[in-house]
Amino acid sequence: MTVLPESAVLAKGQGNEFANLGSRLVRFGQALQEPSTTVSELAKLAGACGISLKLRAVSESGGGDEARP
Questions:
Q1: Domain count, the chain
Q2: What is the pLDDT of residues 10-51, one digit of tens each?
Q3: pTM of the model
Q4: Residue 47 located in a structural domain
């Protein structure tokens, strides 16, 4: 068994906060995999996780935009 220093002990309620964040991240990940999820829904779920969602639309026509960062 690993013994942690006193400074490593979580404050009361912090463990629950991490569990809540984990649940929100799982839901966000599931939404990313669901084709019917809207951009608005993704943005809300990302925001709930503290993530700033930035999307970029790319043309599929192959008009030479691939070389541009």
A1: 1
A2: 555 667 888 999 999 999 999 999 999 999 999 999 999 999
A3: 0.63
A4: yes
